[in-house]
Design brief:
Blueprint: E1 10-16, E2 22-28, E3 37-45, H1 48-55, E4 64-65, E5 69-77, E6 96-99, E7 102-103, H2 109-112, E8 123-124, E9 143-146, E10 152-154, H3 161-164, H4 170-181, E11 188-192, H5 196-207, E12 212-216, H6 220-228, E13 233-235, E14 244-249, H7 254-261, E15 264-272, H8 286-291, E16 295-298, H9 304-317, H10 336-342, E17 351-352
Parallel strand pairs: 11-12, 11-14, 12-13, 14-15, 15-16
Antiparallel strand pairs: 1-2, 1-4, 3-5, 3-9, 3-17, 5-6, 6-10, 7-8
Helix pairs in contact: 4-5, 4-9
The structure holds zinc ion (ZN) (2 copies).
The site of one zinc ion has 5 residues, from loops.
Length: 356
């Protein structure tokens, strides 16, 4: 029998403390409630939500363990209840998993009935006050606790950590946006923004058999990236967009969205999947919306089904696109301060290996 490692009693986490900034701190690994899952984080990626929240000081409840995206290994499951992944598989120590960013509140009637996706006030990873009963609540740490109501998915063995890590935020959002847009086969699709959500939506549209895919993106470097992910065309925001049937707005900006909406053909659908950092106002011609039967849809929250779709999509197609090239070489947790400040530059994601 191999020796059994003693369970860790202390975690190291990236803590956002408001005015004093981001620091790396210690936190106790708690005793697990029934069905809770303790994960040892192998790799975390710094999504735009983390960067925006810190830059804009948007988190209200401090201090907060940061981080949405990550991939890790199940270290323990709280005794007394089974923990089941979104694919229906029972979770057990040693399994490699990813997790979704939204978790049921654990208090409401929906959560009491285990219908966590119906919870009206879900909690979000990386947004919880640390003194709350859920301390290890962000991906940017050596350990993470996922309460009942969290979405976890097993990661197939061929998918590298750097590819799997963004599944829980960016790729699940992309899957939700594509889901919301309806069938894409034979339709002309325009994606606004070539961050990771936009690239995910683009790749999913290509695989779904879209008649054409166009990405609208202000930065030339990102336009080239969109082409390497299979876009038929990548246009600057000022360029006129050809007629289209579906628009997926992945943080394209309000002005661009309003302008591209003019290109939407009668009966077309626009899904707004941008992050909260978008300029929130865009003027919409309501008369045309009505006359041409356009559908203007918000995204809502990605749920467990979208996480499962994201993982299945990456497992089936990741080798066809340069996903790993747009994630940095991992740095240790002590590099997180700089990572939060500099993410969003040359590469799509800064990676952190918290246990390195
Ligand atoms: Zn995120
Ligand atoms: Zn709830």
């Amino acid at each position: 029998m191999p020796p059994i490692a003693a369970p860790a009693t202390t975690a190291r986490v990236a803590l956002w403390e408001g005015a004093s900034g981001v620091s790396v701190s210690s936190a106790p690994v708690p005793r697990l409630a029934p069905g809770e899952v303790l994960v040892e984080v192998r790799l975390a990626t710094v999504c735009g939500c983390v960067r925006d929240a810190v830059r804009e000081r948007r988190l209200g409840s401090l201090p907060t363990v940061l981080g949405h995206e990550g991939v890790g290994t199940v270290a323990a499951v709280g005794r007394g209840a089974e923990a089941v992944g979104v694919d229906g598989v029972s979770l057990a120590p040693g399994m490699r998993v990813v997790w979704g960013r939204d978790v049921g509140c654990g208090q409401c009637t929906a959560c009491a009935a285990h219908a966590y996706d119906d919870c009206p006030e879900p909690r979000e990873l990386g947004h919880q006050p640390m003194q709350h009963d859920w301390i290890l609540s962000g991906s940017l740490g050596t350990h993470l606790v996922l309460p009942r109501g969290a979405h976890l998915a097993g990661v197939p063995s061929g998918v590298p950590d750097a590819v799997a890590s963004p599944a829980g935020c960016a790729l699940a959002v992309a899957a939700a946006a594509v889901d919301r847009a309806g069938a894409l086969a034979g339709r002309r699709v325009v994606v606004l923004g070539a961050g990771l959500v936009g690239l995910g939506a683009l790749a999913m549209a290509v695989e779904a058999g879209a008649a054409s895919t166009t990405v609208v993106e202000p930065r030339a470097k990102r336009r080239r990236r969109a082409l390497s992910f299979g876009a038929d065309a990548a246009l600057d925001c000022d360029t006129r967009v050809p007629g289209c049937d579906v628009i997926i707005d992945a943080a394209g900006g309000a002005d661009t969205f309003a302008r591209v909406l003019d290109s939407l053909a009668p009966g077309g659908t626009a899904v707004v999947a941008g992050t909260r950092s978008q300029v929130p106002d865009a003027s919409v011609d309501l008369e045309r919306l009505s006359r041409d039967g356009l559908s203007l849809l918000g995204l809502g929250r990605p749920d467990g089904r979208h996480l499962a779709q994201a993982v299945a999509f990456l497992a089936a197609t990741h080798a066809m696109r340069p996903w790993a090239d747009i994630v940095s070489q991992p740095r240790g947790l002590d590099g997180v301060v700089e990572a939060v400040a500099h993410s969003g530059g040359k590469i799509a994601r800064v990676a952190i290996a918290p246990r390195a």
